Recover the amino acids of this structure.
């Protein structure tokens, strides 16, 4: 049975690859079109649109210079470090969205998973104490466990009560974010700080920086590893195989007697575990303390990354790097020109819109075009 | 507010007055959610879940304020009462455009409705702050400049009945915002439209079974276009109320999740107009409760957790009721 399923899967994959090759120009085209529309908007509001756009596209690069007296110099490393830090967050979030996607589950719950697991990691780091080799693994375990459990909830609600995972994951996000705010403002607040924030995490519980003036920590190196791990889980384990079948051929999977319910729950939980890594990265790597107003909406950035990588785990770090590069460039653009950095949000939205379209032209137009061609 | 009102009122009259104040506060908080939830209901019944309610509200709120502001600047001779209405029109137009964008991407270009909806939300969030920074020079809000608001309707000749007067004209005696009345009118209108009008029946048939509706000769695509546009219009009214009634300014991200709560209200209300009204009022009450607790320095977050929690429980109960073979 499994053998036969595998054969048909491989045929399906071959077809998918052929289709993908046919459409391989579409992804760059979508990105290019979105950037072009962004340029148009910049031209409407800015006095110097071309320079602004140049900063957007190159502002994130380190400045490598050579002079006789100083030798090789690299400036703006902090900015490039910011790209790497952001890319790590986005990689984890992209994986969090992509894994449930492969099982055809729309989990929008990455936000909630991230908030709760960051909270769990910070709580363990604050109250456990001890040397780094105790605290850090404990914080990691707490975060991943929290993310996994919270991630399974929409799956359980769907399997057990047939509730749409889109709605439940959105609702669980609202609950998780309020709980996070409650915890930071009421229970974990640093009384000495002027605003609502947890105390600084002890030094033993934070990841140390590998690059001067940046927060590039071991978590940044962990991002590609996590992507490999997700790939192995998806492509080289039985559970991952079941996820893919449940996603690409649900009717077939049901006929073959695969444990669909368990598979869905597991896929969503695995997504939660990866979102938890983003939470750990933010709390113990980047901020080293948690403010009450940590901005929600990061989960949607994960959606963009997953879409750009077409839910392929090995491509996710690259997609994340691209978007992190663009975002850091946008900050540089805001600082040095008259264009505000929210422009990049518009570009992000447009990329998503253009990537998920199936056609370049409406069906009716293409039909009319074919008719016209046949007539003439 | 309640304790002192009860203290200096006399018995039953004081209690009635306090109750009226509460009802009005709940109504005010519920109206934006109600508008958006009705919009969400229309598109949901037509088989198109509208995730973009949040973004549509936000854009309508923004262009309502900006439209009114620029109407005053560009046409200085304009009568004073007209500018907010022009703003309202601008806000609704922006909402329709955004809903139309979603409809075109979903129905013409085959984009996934949920992903496209999320993209619309991101677009709205980015675009409003971007334009706010460009036009006003402030990324937070339009608080620095005074912006007009839509008028309130005052019911005259009620001074003989203080309780009725308070109910219909509010505590300050200025009357209720015109969009509150519009929301209350929209509920029976929409209910009748969905139940009686041919187009309403088509709309429900499309959502129930698209293939069957198509086979029956219903112009499915046009129905879904209309449903998404109507949904955008209603959500736009909610957004305009937020920035030109509930508050008289635009703030970045001022919808603050109301669009998602509206989506929740659709499901909590079991996809019926009356149920949606009840759910929206419930969410409005939760928001009023949170504000009152916040004034007493209680943690308000617990109250904000209630609406989503109630929605999940409602979904669980509904799922248990019609437990059929799950198809995913």
């Amino acid at each position: 049975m499994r053998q036969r399923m595998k054969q048909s899967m491989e045929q399906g994959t071959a077809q998918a690859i052929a289709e993908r090759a046919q459409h391989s120009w579409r992804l760059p085209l979508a990105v290019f079109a979105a950037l072009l529309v962004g340029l148009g908007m910049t031209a409407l509001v800015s006095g110097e649109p071309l320079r602004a756009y140049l900063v957007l596209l190159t502002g994130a690069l380190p400045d490598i210079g050579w002079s006789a007296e100083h030798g090789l110099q690299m400036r703006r490393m902090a900015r490039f470090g910011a790209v790497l830090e952001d890319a790590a967050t986005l990689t984890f979030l992209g994986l969090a969205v992509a894994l449930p996607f492969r099982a055809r589950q729309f989990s929008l719950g990455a936000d909630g998973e991230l908030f709760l697991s960051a909270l769990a990691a910070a709580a363990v780091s604050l109250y456990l104490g001890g040397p780094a080799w105790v605290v850090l693994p404990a914080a990691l375990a707490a975060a991943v466990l929290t993310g996994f459990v919270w991630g399974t909830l929409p799956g359980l609600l769907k399997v057990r009560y047939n509730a749409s995972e889109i709605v439940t994951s959105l609702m669980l996000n609202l609950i998780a974010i309020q709980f996070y705010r409650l915890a930071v403002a009421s229970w974990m607040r640093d009384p000495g700080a002027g605003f609502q924030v947890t105390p600084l995490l002890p030094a033993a519980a934070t990841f140390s920086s590998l690059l001067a003036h940046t927060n590039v920590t071991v978590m940044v190196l962990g991002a590609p590893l996590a992507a490999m791990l997700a790939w192995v889980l998806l492509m080289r384990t039985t559970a991952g195989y079941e996820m893919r079948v449940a996603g690409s051929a649900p009717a077939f999977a049901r006929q073959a007697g695969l444990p669909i319910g368990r598979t869905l729950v597991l896929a969503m939980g695995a997504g939660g575990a990866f979102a938890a890594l983003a939470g750990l990265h933010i709390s113990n790597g980047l901020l080293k303390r948690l403010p009450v107003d940590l901005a929600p909406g990061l989960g949607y950035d994960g959606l963009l990354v997953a879409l750009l990588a077409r839910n392929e785990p090995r491509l996710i770090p690259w997609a994340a790097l691209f978007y992190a590069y663009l975002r850091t460039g946008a900050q540089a653009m805001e600082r040095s020109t008259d264009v505000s950095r929210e422009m990049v949000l518009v570009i992000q939205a447009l990329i998503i819109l253009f990537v998920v379209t199936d056609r370049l032209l409406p069906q009716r137009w293409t039909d009319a075009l074919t008719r016209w061609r046949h007539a003439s | 507010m309640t304790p002192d009102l009860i203290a200096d009122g006399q018995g039953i009259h004081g209690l009635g007055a306090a109750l009226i104040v509460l009802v009005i506060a709940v109504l005010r908080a519920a109206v934006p959610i109600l508008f958006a939830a009705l919009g969400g209901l229309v598109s949901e019944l037509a088989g198109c879940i509208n995730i973009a309610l949040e973004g549509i509200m936000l854009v309508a709120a923004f262009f309502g304020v900006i439209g009114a502001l620029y109407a005053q600047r560009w046409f200085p001779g304009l009568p004073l009462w007209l500018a907010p209405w022009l703003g309202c029109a601008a806000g609704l137009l922006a909402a329709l455009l955004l809903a139309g964008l979603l409809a075109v991407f979903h129905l013409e270009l085959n984009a996934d409705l949920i992903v496209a909806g999320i993209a619309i939300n991101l677009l709205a969030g980015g675009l409003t702050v971007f334009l706010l920074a460009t036009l006003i020079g402030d990324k937070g809000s339009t608080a620095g400049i005074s912006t007009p608001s839509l008028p309130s309707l005052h019911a005259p000749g009620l001074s003989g009945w203080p309780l009725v007067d308070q109910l219909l004209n509010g505590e300050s005696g200025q009357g209720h915002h015109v969009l509150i009345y519009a929301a209350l009118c929209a509920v029976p209108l929409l209910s009748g439209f969905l139940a009686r009008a041919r187009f309403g029946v088509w709309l429900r048939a499309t959502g129930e079974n698209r293939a069957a509706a198509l086979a029956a000769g219903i112009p499915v695509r046009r129905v879904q276009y209309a449903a998404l546009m109507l949904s955008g219009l209603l959500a736009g009214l909610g957004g305009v109320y937020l920035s030109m009634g509930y508050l008289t300014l635009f703030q970045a991200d001022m919808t603050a999740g109301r669009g998602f709560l509206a989506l929740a209200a659709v499901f909590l209300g079991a996809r019926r107009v009356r149920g949606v009204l009840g759910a929206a009022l419930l969410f409005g009450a939760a928001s009023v409760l949170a504000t009152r607790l916040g004034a007493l320095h209680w943690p308000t977050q617990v109250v904000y957790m209630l609406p989503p929690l109630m929605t999940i429980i409602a979904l669980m109960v509904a799922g248990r009721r019609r437990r059929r073979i799950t198809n995913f």
Observations:
- The beta strands of chain A are 63-67, 71-75.
- The mean pLDDT of chain A is 84.
- Residues 210 and 222 of chain A are 13 Å apart (CA to CA).
